[in-house]
Amino acid sequence: MDCNNFYVSCERVFRPELEGKPVVVLSNNDGCIISRSEEAKQLGLKMAEPAFLKKDFLKRHKVHVFSSNYTLYGDMSQRVMDVLRIFTTEMEIYSIDEAFLILTNTNNLYATIQKIQQTVFKSTGIPVSIGVGKTKSLAKIANKIAKKNKVYPGLFIINNTQQRDCILRNTHVEKLWGIGRQHHKLLRKNNIITAYNFTQINNQWIRKKMSVVGLRIKQELLGVSCMPIELCLPDKKAIATTRAFGKKINSYTYLCEAVATYATRCSEKLRKQSSVASIITVFIHTDPFNSRDKQYNKSKTFALPVPTNSNYQLAHYAIIALKQIYSIDYYYKKAGVIVDGLMPENEIQYGFFEVNNRVKWNMVIKATDKINKKYGRDKIKLAIMGMSNKWKLRQKKLSGRYTTNWDEIIQVLK
DNA sequence: TCTGGGGTCCTAGGACCC
DNA sequence: TCTGGGGTCCTAGGACCC
Fold first, then answer.
1. Confidence class of residue A195 from pLDDT cuts 50, 70 and 90?
2. Domains A2-68 and A239-385 share a fold
3. Where are the alpha helices (DSSP H) in A344-412?
4. Does nucleic acid strand B have an atom less than 7 angstroms from the CB of A170?
5. Cβ of A175 < 7 Å from strand B?
6. Angle at the Cα of A10 (from A9 to A13), degrees rounded to 5?
7. N or C end of chain A, less CB within 10 A?
8. CA separation (Å) from A294 to A58, A247, A315, A368?
9. Angle A203-221/A181-189 helices, nearest 10 degrees?
10. Where exactly are the structural domains of chain A?
11. How many CB atoms lie within 10 A of CB A195?
12. Residue A337 has pLDDT above 90, yes or no
């Protein structure tokens, strides 16, 4: 199951008058086009195109432009997934807009799937496509075909080997799930053009050139499942908060604000999955697109004395790392904090000589989390996170958080 | 003025262990 | 002439995904 043009569809749920009109959603900082309605695709707008290059074009064609609103999309995603769960207990949430479902004992597959589509649409307003196959890789191919299916819109089923091979012959190998740029280059060089060609290559060659990952794809295309469904969301093994700034900054103070803020976000994400981090990385870099600027690209990684998910501790160590890589000679465009070496928070090995004031700190964090949840993010925060807006994101076309904030709930006027 | 963010998995090679 | 065998763990880098 794959939501159609997901971010655009989310925006349209609350702006139904945009149905049938070209709509795009931009990446953070209003940088690139990352979601397009059918009408926007028809106009020739490409995925990941920088928005500033298309500014006039967008205006001329009256394209409706939105900044990305991940709070909204995340919540809408959860609603879609909740509805899907009505139909099967065996389901994997693969990404914000995709899920794999196992459907067994289904007499009329077409009817069942249409029922799923209708229920999701009625409950959430999100249109979805569903492709069916014996393996995940085949289901992904079916899903692509489903999007163009005229007879059963948004629905396609691969149900026998003859039909499967016919489809594989008509599928370019680079369209396959798991085949990226590099492998496409390699395959083209070896005259492997279609997915069917790929299934005819001997296993040793694939194993040698594309590792076991390539081999799995081949098996999956032949109907042998090699990628089991992950029924529950595994804990993350790394967590990152990285952002490009609204404008270039040079000041150490502002960089501190940004880095401390990103460290705080990482601590929030860690607490959400009850993990602690044992390694922290901080990086800063200049604007790679500006060839006239002197370029600078530096990162610092170190192990924390004791694993933690405290905002105070992570911000503290992030600033120490920043201090070591900051140079006053550059204008910076982006910074990030990545935490690694994650483990469950109840398995922390404390230091033998550590003065353990964690209990106290955890109470502080619990209290501030509660306050911030009630009154809004960062109502209470570390002073070093600052009050300036110098480095914040550009989000000129942000829609409301209709489903998660009472203040922004949609209004129906008489 | 202006080009995103956040992840996973695999492999090879080095260090180390008994 | 000639120098074992069998492992684990960690890291960096590559490839890929949405």
1. very high
2. no
3. 358-375
4. no
5. no
6. 85
7. C
8. 32, 16, 28, 41
9. 120
10. 2-68, 89-221, 239-385
11. 26
12. yes
CB-strand contact A301/B, under 7 Å = no
**pLDDT the model gives residue A311:** 94
Percentage of the residues of chain A whose pLDDT score is greater than 70 = 99
User: Domain spanning A2-68 has what CATH number?
Assistant: 3.40.1170.60
Please state, in angstroms and rounded to a whole number, the distance separating the CA atoms of residues A160 and A138: 11
The CA distance from A262 to A319, in Å, is: 11
Tokens 């290559």 label which residue? A201
Per-residue pLDDT at A356 exceeds 70: no
pLDDT at position A407 is: 86
Q: Give CA–CA dist A405/A98, Å, rounded.
A: 25
Nearest protein residue by Cα to C1' of nucleotide B8: A237
Q: Model pTM?
A: 0.93
Q: How many CA atoms lie within 13 A of A224 on its CB side?
A: 7
pLDDT at A390 over 90: no
Q: Which fold has domain A239-385?
A: Dna Ligase; domain 1 (3.30.1490)
The string of pLDDT tens digits covering residues A102-158 is: 998 788 999 999 999 999 999 999 999 999 999 999 999 999 999 999 999 999 999
Which residue places its CA closest to the C1' of nucleotide B9? Answer: A213
A100 backbone dihedrals φ, ψ, rounded to 5°: -105, 135
How many angstroms separate the CA of A131 from the C1' of C14? Answer: 31
Distance, CA of A46 to chain centre: 19
What is the separation, in whole angstroms, between the first and last Cα of chain A?
37
Contact A136, A225 (CB under 8 A): yes
pLDDT > 80? residue A355: no
Minimum CA–C1' distance nucleotide for A96? C18
